[in-house]
Amino acid sequence: MPLVYRQGHGETSFWAAYKVVIPREQHTAVGKETGETAHVERWKNTLRKPLARFVRMTLSFSKSELMHEACLLL
User: Fold this and answer.
1) Beta bridge partners of 29
2) pLDDT per residue over 42-51, tens digit each?
């Protein structure tokens, strides 16, 4: 992980694993109602749609190898 990311501060949910991995001084646990994690969730959703063809065929898939490769180049 890049050094600059290791020095940052972040907000996460109250999942117990975050306390184990992220140092206390770099971590704030927040609830969904605060909206503090909304921008991260929006980014995940933005990435999820174009990458859907690699996840589950019934949701989004390429009918030809040519289209599959074309979408990789986007």
Assistant:
1) 12
2) 887 887 777 7
The domain of 69 spans 3-73
What does the longest C-alpha to C-alpha distance in the chain come to? 50
* Residue in 44, 38, 36, 39 with CA at minimum distance from that of residue 11: 36
pTM for this model (two decimals): 0.44
The number of folded domains in the chain is 1
User: H or E segment at 12?
Assistant: strand 10-12
Nearest Cα residue to 74 out of 41, 51, 45: 51
Helix (H, G, I), strand (E, B) or coil at 68: helix
